[in-house]
Design a protein that fits this description.
Elements: H1 3-10, H2 12-42, H3 46-82, H4 89-121, H5 128-140, H6 143-157, H7 161-185, H8 190-203, H9 205-214, H10 231-265, H11 268-304, H12 308-335, H13 337-343, H14 354-363, H15 365-383, H16 387-412, H17 417-445
Helix pairs in contact: 1-2, 2-7, 2-11, 3-4, 3-5, 3-6, 3-10, 3-11, 4-5, 4-6, 5-8, 6-7, 6-8, 6-9, 7-8, 10-11, 10-16, 11-12, 11-14, 11-15, 12-15, 13-14, 15-16, 15-17, 16-17
């Protein structure tokens, strides 16, 4: 048995750490890339920052669909490993890659036609030209998001986290290098940032293709000749992948609604503040998300093998580990809020944002600390292949609890923009507690499942 697979089956806590920490490093580098992007764009003018803010919900949806489909592949392949159905993993992986190609073509065709109308409906009329410059290039390169995410999921499912993350880390480094060249040296401005992102993400495809199809260094063996069209496999991937994608759509919808409320409550500057502060908050939520992804991978194997103890251990350990990390990051945010804010307001034209940024960072520390329980519970459902449950929990947090409390504090209690941040804190806290209660009740009610005879997953 491969060492990585043995780890996931027999040592779940160690497997979570082994999977999570390289993921954290990878995603923090991706986040650093986003932050650096924001820093360089902030050097242009406030309008460029505002334009990026209006494009952000669309990029969240694109990335979310890519991650969602990858989650479906990761869950299916992990469950195959759990029942030792190794011979069919190659076909499942190839179906996953094919699905990512189809999705990139569909998304590209749709957004090339409707991007301008979507941006205008989001309120981007005052910066529509800048938003279109960035958005059209990003959309045209959407294949460079979908395919690498799916190829990464193949290695992630078998526990080879180095091959799953190194190409993505390399693309991040490339983007940070070419960003200022395209933006300032070539004088391409905001579209230079988009070109740099697409170029760097396309580069990450090369090592994945080499490892999978040329060197064939995947333990589970992925060969193009193994592909046999099976719509049941597509269905199994989409059972988790579509709800996971819709989760990101729910998050993007929430962002759109909050942006519109910010415009009602104040001005474009508050929209810029809100979108910038989420770049900072992502520093706190990214490690938690990575731990939750690692938990999902280990849970998929445990669920496939009907190992209740490993599943329960993964849930409890994932919440404990991610909460400790979130608390540490929260303390850092409170202490160094001004320094984080200054990164995005270092030019004369963006200095007006600094006080509101410091305030928002400190208030949203509660959001970061409340995030782990809900995130881990949601990803446990994904690992078990219960994508609908995961989607419902995400919707309850982002589109129900958060928006209800934002409206309550911002409009009914008349706290304005302060109420938006209070509402986010309270909504996430309650939503996470509800998510945790749901996964605990589900496992208790379905404990008998783990005592039944294991059925082989048919992905031939």
């Amino acid at each position: 048995m491969d060492e990585n697979i043995n780890l996931m089956i027999n040592f779940p806590k160690k497997a979570i750490r082994t999977l999570a920490f390289p993921l954290i490093l990878n995603n923090l580098l991706l986040l650093l890339n986003t932050i650096v992007d924001g820093i360089w764009i902030a050097g242009l003018n406030v309008d460029s920052l505002i334009a990026i803010g209006f494009v952000t919900p669309i990029t969240i949806i694109i990335i979310g669909i890519g991650n969602g489909l990858a989650s479906g592949a990761n869950s299916l392949i992990g469950r195959c490993i759990g029942v030792e159905n190794y011979e069919n993993v190659s076909n499942a992986a190839l179906h996953s890659i094919m699905l990512s190609l189809i999705a990139s073509v569909v998304i590209l065709a749709f957004l090339l036609i409707f991007l301008r109308q979507i941006l205008l409906s989001l309120g981007a009329a005052s910066v529509i030209d800048l938003s279109m410059e960035y958005g059209m290039i990003y959309v045209a390169g959407s294949f460079s998001i979908f395919v690498p995410f799916m190829l990464s999921a193949v290695f992630k499912a078998e526990g080879d986290i180095k091959k799953a993350t190194y190409p993505l880390m390399a693309s991040t480094a490339i983007n940070m290098i070419v960003d200022p060249v395209f933006i300032y040296a070539f004088e391409w401005g905001i579209k230079g940032a988009a070109f740099a992102t697409v170029l760097a993400e396309t580069f990450s495809l090369l090592p994945f293709i080499y490892w999978l199809f040329i060197k064939r260094s995947s333990y589970l063996g992925v060969r193009l000749s193994d592909y046999k069209t099976n719509f049941k496999v597509y269905k199994d991937i989409l059972t988790v992948g579509l709800p996971a994608s819709f989760e990101q759509l729910a998050i993007a919808t929430s962002t759109i609604i909050i942006n519109s409320w910010m415009l009602i409550l104040s001005s474009n500057l508050d929209v810029a503040t809100y979108n910038v502060v989420w770049r900072v908050m992502a520093i706190g939520t990214t490690p938690v998300t990575c731990i939750a992804i690692a938990v999902s991978t280990v849970v998929a194997v445990a669920f496939g093998g009907k190992n209740y103890e490993n599943l329960r251990t993964s849930l409890v350990y994932g919440i404990k580990l991610s909460t400790i990390i979130a608390v540490v990051i929260g303390v850092i945010f409170v202490i160094f809020a001004y320094q984080f804010a200054y990164i995005f307001s270092y030019t004369e034209s963006t200095q007006v944002l600094i006080e509101s940024l410091v305030f928002a960072i400190r208030i949203l520390t509660i959001y970061v600390i409340a995030f782990p329980a809900g995130a881990v519970a949601t990803m446990v459902f994904q690992g078990m292949g219960k994508g609908t449950y995961s989607l419902l929990l995400t919707i309850s947090r982002t589109l129900i609890f958060e928006l209800i409390f934002i409206y309550l504090f911002a409009f009914l209690f008349d706290y304005g923009t302060l109420g938006v941040y209070f509402g986010l804190d309270v909504g996430m806290t309650i939503g996470s507690l509800v998510s945790l209660a749901c996964i605990i009740l589900y496992l208790r009610r379905h404990k008998d499942y783990f005592n039944e005879k294991t059925d082989n997953l048919d992905v031939e």
